[in-house]
Amino acid sequence: MEIFFDLSAIPTNSPLLLGWWFFKTIGWIYPVFLFVYGLLLYWQFWIRNKYRHDRKYILLAIDVPKDNEQGPKGVENIFNQLAGAHQPLGFLDDWWTGEIKNSFSFEIVSLGGYIQFIIHLVDRYRDLIEAMIYAQYPDAEITEIEDYTKDWNLKFPNNQYQLWGSELKLAKSEFYPIRTYPEFEHVEEGFKDSMASLLEGMTRIGPGEQIWVQIVATPADNSWGDAAEHLIKKLAGGKPKIKKNAFDYIYGAPNLVLAGLNPVETAASVVKKDEPPTQMLYLTQGEKDRINAIERKIGKLGFHCKIRLIYFAEKAKFKKAVPSAVYGAFKQFNTLDLNSLKPDKRILTASIFWLKEFRLNIRRRKILYRYKWRGYWLDPGYEGYILNSEELASIYHFPVITVKAPLVRKTEAKKAEPPMGLPIEQMAPPVKIPSAPKAQPPENLPVG
């Protein structure tokens, strides 16, 4: 059987004719593919936006107990429960319903020095959030408020206000942990709350100034740590197992054929078989601790996170030292041997030389826009890096009683309750003991 290719129909005397011939034969497939692919992306964008518009978001202000003695462990338990809000997405979710993962924004705002803890969420999760908080902090007060960012539609350049902002990112792979709250515990001195420095810095501003701190957390799949296996084996001195795809098997087929023709083992292959799977016995203590820290991180529930910081004020009141104090509070979670949080230079409103003011104004608008929309526009795969529940609780938790930040909103009194042994059945009519009035947010925080 002979195979014959007729190449006489290919025009070779003109590049234009050659191009037209190629397009008529097989070249038309490429633009048609791009057109169909563009339609699919537009359809996905449309159904996701429809799904977003159908959801209702609310903000809950949390007044922490005044005599709180519970450390970050209580908030870690809250995050562990919140991981149950993770919803795995399938093919129909991506291309028919448009469903995306639900994100929760944990925020700390300082309005002229007054500090409030706030959670932004989809309204259907309100009962879940309240139940989790009351389970760990029975004396906390939860109030629904209006969005404090809605009236701040600042445009830059701006003659009245100046703004500094940034997103924080991890310096190394997300599998390396940052410093967490167990390392802030001292046997003799007790627990040194990591929130103290942040809250103290946020109280050092006055009227006309605001500081916003935001952590957008999206529950991750329980298998998020599986990808760390490659890194652990590499650090342990072993040979990581590399998953092969179809192309790897195609390219490796000649080697398999040659190996079958020459089955005699070489000296090199014998030596490789005798090598230990890892070099753990020869690692230093620091290298072993690094591996243990990674394994400890991936052993806990994870969240995709984006951390945003904003400080803005009237130009006459803007203090250049405030951004350093806010970001400095996050540097206490950094370690040189493991991981650290650092500003994302692509979004940071600083460190620009060419067209400085023009590019700074673009970044100011961008960080303010992203903060106000929280996780609203986060598409699957773009929710951010992974922090586990312990790391999140180290960064965001309610301060303990030893933190002396006077302007943090706290509950003033416990709710009055009847005694356990009170014979209610014999009382006619039953006496209703009034509860103490709920603490209300300040006048400059709009209540919904």
Automatic annotation (TrEMBL):
Coiled coil: none
Alphabetically ordered keywords of this record: Membrane, Transmembrane, Transmembrane helix
Transmembrane segments: 20-43
Keyword Transmembrane helix: yes
Region (Disordered): 429-448
Keyword presence, Ribonucleoprotein: no
Domain annotation DUF8128: ranges: 98-340
Start-end of Pro residues biased regions: 439-448
Protein's name in the database: DUF8128 domain-containing protein
